[in-house]
Each structure stands twice: as C-alpha cells, then as structure tokens.
## 1
Amino acid sequence: MSTGIWVLVAVLAVGAIAGGLLRMRAWLQKPVPPEVIEAAHRDDEDPND
C-alpha cells in the first residue's frame, strides 16, 4: 500500500511539473507588447555607459 501512495505522489509531481512547463512555454510564446520593446531600446541607448 505504501508503494502505491509513493507512485501516486510521483505521478502527481511529474504531472504538476509538466503542466507548469507547458504553461510557461505558452506564456513565453505570446507576443511582447510594443511598450516593452520600446523600453528595451531606450535602455540600450543609455549614454552613461
């Protein structure tokens, strides 16, 4: 019985990690808003470097 519980815990853990990675992948594939790109370009042109 104890082995079955550990197998269930392992399956749930792997499922949670895989689900999180898939959500992260989907979030990273979303297009970036133009404001973010503009702000990044402003930071690149910093004359204090």
## 2
Amino acid sequence: MTNFSFPVRIYIEDTDAGGIVYYANYLRYMERCRSEWLRQCGVSQEILRHQDILFVVAEAALKYHRPARLDEALEVTLTVTDMGKARLRICHEVFRLGEDAPQLLVTGTVTVACMSAAGKPKAIPAEVREKIDYTDRQSG
C-alpha cells in the first residue's frame, strides 16, 4: 500500500453560499494530492504528456461525512489499493486537523486510467509502475 498526504487550507473561494466547502471542491483537493504524490514518486506528468501518456479519472465515488469550513486546515490522504495493466484504484480520505484528533470529513475512491491523447487505453509504462509501486517496500 502506498500512503501519502497533502495539506489543504480552506479559502473563501472554496466555500458555497452557506459557508461550507462546495462539494465538488473535494475532487480538486484529491486531484492535487494525486499530482503531488506522482511528483514525489519522480513521475512527471508533463514528460508523460509529451510521450502521449495521460492519467485520466475514469470513475470517482465520494461519501461526505462532515463539512469543512473557511480557514480550516485539512489533510488529504492517498492510498493505492490496486494497480492493473492500465489503471490505478486510489482511496482518498480528507481529514480536518485541529486541537483534537483529526476528524474524517470525506472518503473517496478514484479509478485513474492510463490513456493516449486519442483516448485509447495504454499500459502503464514499466518505469512508471516501478516508481508508483503500491506495495509497501518498508514492510520488508
């Protein structure tokens, strides 16, 4: 399992008229988390794009547990739960950080497909697979 976390601060632009985070913004936070995770793994999406390799969201399912509000500090986590020939299944959790224990706000599962710019499935390249290997290398 790969575990990664990404911090998010809630700004006024993130909230709706009721003062809570607009529901679709959680998908943006999860996308940022995945992008930063790839960057940390040494995978450049820009280089892949020039090689006609794109990672696109094929499916997303979210469950909202509690709302986030203006100025709150959040943490978005990422765990790769499955890697197929041309897809990754990623579980995300969004937590509110604060004085108490982190509170779970949102859970989500996102399936990311590897495709060409023409929309045809492509195998995840071996060098990318090696960098994003979802097995826990630390567990010996």
## 3
Amino acid sequence: MFLVLQASIGYVQKFWGPQIDPRLAQYLTNFLFGSGQQKTPTVDFNRFAELYVYNVRGTVEERMMVTYNCLGMDYNEDVELPFQLLKEYCESIVSTYIKIVKSSSSKRARTWIEKGFKANASHVQALGEAVAASVGGDLDSPQHCTAQQLSKWLQSNILLKQVAELVYVNLYGINKRAGDESPTPLPPAASSLLPGPEGLDPMPDYPAFIDMSHIVWINAHLPQKYQHKWRFLFSTHIHGESFSTMTGRIIDQGPSIIIIEDSSGYIFGGFAAVSWAFGPNFTGTDEAFLFTCAPKMRIYPATNYNDHYQYINHHTKTLPNGLLMGGQFQFGGIWVNAEPFGEGSSAESCSTFRGYRRLSREPSFRIRSLEVWGVGDKPVCDKDEETEIVSERSSVLATRKSERNFLKLIGKTQASDGFAEIETPS
C-alpha cells in the first residue's frame, strides 16, 4: 500500500507563509514543483518528504541537489553557482531561522528579546552573507562557486547545517504535539545556536548594542561546551568607563568574550579561552579567536604561529597597562588602554590569528560600548573547591564515626582506631 498525497503551490505557500521568509518560500517552491518549463501544479508526498530528509539527514550530494534545485537549476558538476544567488539563498534560511526564534515561546529567546536585543534586518542579512562567504575562500568578493567548492562548503559549514536543520524541523512541525498551534519550542541551547542569558534579570532596561544575529554568529564559533550559556559580567553603559571596575568583574571568571563598538559603529571582539589574570605574560589557548559583527561578520581563528592570545595588566611601571588580544604590545589585534580608559587600537596585521584584517574602522578608536560575557558555566574558584573538600572530608569522618559506634555496639573494634583523623583545613 502506498501513501499518495498531493498539494498545490497555493496550499504550500499558505501552510508555510507566516513563518517563512518569502524568498525561501520561492526557493522551496522551485524544489517541490520545479521551475520554468518543468513546473508542475502539484507535488506528491515523496517529493515533499525528500525536502525535509535531504536537508536534515541527507548526504552532501543530496544537500547539493536541494541547493541547485531550490535555485532553479539542475545539479551538474560542471555548472557554477553565482555567489549572489547562493548568498540570497543563505540569507533566506537565516532570516527564517530568526523569525522562528522571535516567535518561539522559549524562555531563552524571550529573555534576549525582552532585554532589548533586536533582530535588525541588515544584521540578519549580514549573517546570511557571512554563512555564504566562505564557499569560495575569498571572504570579500567571490563571484562564482564550483560544485567542488560547494561540496566542501556543505561538509565544513556547521553553522549552515544547524540553522537549516532548525528551520526544517520547525517548518515540518516535528516538535509539535497533535493539535498544538503554538510556535515550535526551540531545542536545547547547544543545538539552537542561541545561548541562555544569565545575569540580566536585575536590569529591566539593558542597553543592548549587539543584535540577535551577532549572538548567533559568535556563539556558533565557541567550543560546544560553552555554547549553552552566556553570563553577563561587564558593560560600560552599566558599570561606567573604568578599567579597574572591568577587571574586577572579569578576572577569574573563566572563558569569556569581549565585544566592542567603536565610535564609527564597527562592532568586533574576541574570545578568550581561559580566565583573565593579571601578569607579565601572554596566556590562553589556540581555541581563542577574534571576530567582527558589523559591518561584516567574520571569524579569525588562531594560526598557532605564536601564543599571544590574551594579556591583561594594570598599575605596572615597566609593562603596558591594558588588555590585549593577539599580536604584539602596541600592535595588537585588540588593544584597550587602561588609562585613559575608552581608547583602543587594532593593528593592520596580526600573526596570531588567521586571515586577520583590522577590526575597527580606524587603527585607533574611541570605545562607544564595551561589554564582557563569561561563557559556559561559572568556574569553581579555589575557595569553592576548598569548601567542597572540607565538606567531603567532614562527611567521610561523620560516616566513619557512625560506623565505629555501630561496631562498638556489636562488640567489634577497628584496626585503625589508633590513627589520627584527618585534620580539616581551617
């Protein structure tokens, strides 16, 4: 017995219309019904199912076929895709994902939105462009991409895969219960690309200067173990323009991201893979990276050429006082002065990070906004560890005491009775 269902173009567009970018609706119509002379008035169940299966569980070849068909082309290894077409395709997928996030009943999404984090159309478009840009290797102006480049891109672009999967799971109502008309709940944070915000509750009017698209872009490139949570640590708009205040709030807080907006509106920053700590030496690991969010979204990962990932110092006479990520003193990828706070610089070149280009509009910049977020769970500090050890030892000693009392009751003695008990730290 075969299940045979058919749907018209009008029905499909009506079914998906409210929750989908109009461009993506057209691309999916191309896949389902064909385009040009091959266009048909209806689609059968198998073709409708293939759209979901190929995008969510499909092989690279199947995903390539979907991409070509959605763009009104037959898959052919000799046919190049114009980058502009691919960019608009990625923008439509990202735009639909953001629509899903904004309509979600998820507490995680609602908190970001209620605290003033918007999804500006220009930033959503920039996220789509960034997803597409890596296909040709030239991050600024690729013209066309070959089938070989597209195949490599589909294999390596994790962000595209995750966004597309979330979009199709939502469009096909996979997470919905029967009769449930509410928006599809977002999956757990790690797979939704949107972290859970922590520390914003006391601030009803948070002065947000980054966009939901920026959060998705940065979070997608963090190590997966940190993607589930962002912990608010510092903002110049809330805590004031003070290097001492900033360092007091970010030292020993685990891995973190620093995000800066300069006076020209450029937004950029870096991921510090270990806790910030005062000292004369560079620290960090090759998980560190620099990024830009506006006007374009780009990621600059570590080259392993040197280990100048992060440095911070204050009130020293012989070493620079400030915060540095990448490069050399006075020529860093990001340099933030301690005194006067509010000034910084971004060098023309930085050997610490691959593909690096100056992050700010001008080599020297004024800080309009700066914030720092801890990522992942808050690390356990030494005092917490000591308290935990004392608690564990106390628990063990209490257990041993009750065991000795029980042994005495039944007329037994312990061979270790003569030994001193472990002293707990004072």
## 4
Amino acid sequence: MRRLAALFSVLVIIGAGVFLFWPRAQQDVAGTKPVPAPQTQAANHDPRALTDAEQTAFLPLVCSGASGPGGGYAHQCTSLPGYPSQDYGGAGLGLGITLKSVVMGHLTSADADEAYVTYAGSFEAHANNFGGGILFAGGPGHWKLKGWYPGGQAAHCVSLNPDGRAQFVCLSGWEGQGEEDSQLSVESLPPPAGEAPSILSARDLRDTLNPNANCQTLNAGQAVLLSIDSLRPAPGGAVAEISYVSAGAAKSACAAHDFAHAPVKKATLTLRWHDDSMKMSPALNFASAP
C-alpha cells in the first residue's frame, strides 16, 4: 500500500513538471489568448495631412521668405526654389502656397525613401487645377527637393501595394463651362508626363450649351457615367462611389431630348488590384465619354 502511495506521488510530480514545461506557443503570458504573429509594417502609404514637423521641414525647401497666410493660401513666398519656370505662371496673383497632403513611400524605386507633397498655388493656372506635386528624397531630417510637378496633385490616391515601388489608383477631375470630368487611373508618383491612361472616365455635360451631349456616344444597353464622386481605401484595393444614369433611363431621356432631367442613380464600385491589373465590380456597361 505504501508502495502504491509513493508511486502515485511520483506520477503527480511528473505530471506537474510536464504541465509547467510543456511548450505553449499558442498562449500568451496569462495563458488564455493566442499570441498574434508579428506584422510587417507597410512602406507605402495613402496620402494624409502633413504634421507640423513635416510642414516645418518641407516649406523652406520650396518657399523662400515665407510669411503668414494671404489670398486664401497658408503662406506667401518671395520665390519658389527649383520651380521649373521663373515667370511662375500666375505671379500677378502673388506667390501663395498651401502644402495640402503628403505620400510617403518607395516612389521612384523599390528602395527609395521619398515624400510627395500635393500643393495648391496662386501661381498655377486653371489648366493645372491651381496646384501640383513636389518630390522630396532623403528621409526625415535629411529631406532634399527633387522636383516640382505642376498639375500633378495626388491628394485623392490610394496605395495599392505596401512594399516595393509604389503604385496608386488616383481620382482626378476638372470642371469648366458647365462640363464636369472625373477619372480613375493607376499611376506611380511623381506622375509621368501627360495624362495617365484612365481605367474609368466620367463626363457630365448636362449643364453645357448642349445638355443632350451625353447621348452622342450612347449605344443600346449602355448606361451613362456622370461622375466618380469619391475614392477610399478598402482591403485589397479601393472603393469608388459613382453617379450614373441607367441604360433604360438614358435611352428614354435621349429619345425625348431631355437628358438633363434623366433620373440619377448612385452605386459603389469595388476595385481589386491583382497581378498588376485592376478588376472592377459590379461590371456596368457604360457608354464612352463624349
């Protein structure tokens, strides 16, 4: 009997040791929750507002003699170092500038440490949407001006890949004389010269001298895309909100020569970036922009 009791005591001690020292990789210190695997931090980011420290670092590199706000801009400059034209386009309006947003990432190569700042400027023409972008390289504490890109705003972009050379889907637009245009394009930053090829284009001509102009390119079964209203990040890509006239409503309105009063619908498009190509859903059959 004593032997059985001694044997039982030995088994209890062994069991306690096994419990204490058996590997428990799936438990945290409290032994109740799984330990999450470490995550790799993204190198490429969506546009965001500049911090005060970033404003302080970037502004002197592009705005000499910076003073306080004026004319609707955050700063007034006496000159613009590195700007590609010394006449400044709209110099008669002064040299007002506002640094609006910044994109951090590997912009010109897979390992570059760069920043691309979108600005609004009184010196920019309407053709440039009164602004552009500025490329800086070197990293925090070592920033250097690399170049100005008038008309190259990137405030409405979404990063598509967290690592490697950055790619973005961007929403841009223009309006004038009653016409409103908007488009989505996949591009790198700084943007290449000329317009980036669009993956989706919208044109609203209802307030022009010819309010039925959207009917010119309409074929049977096609809807009319009036505008791309917003773009925001989503898992695996982005989401865009759009306004459009359905195929049936467009057909009826065009037949009645009254497209300006066609009912407008809203929809959400899901954009998925895969194998260097963009997939959009749902697949809506839109007429080409006139």
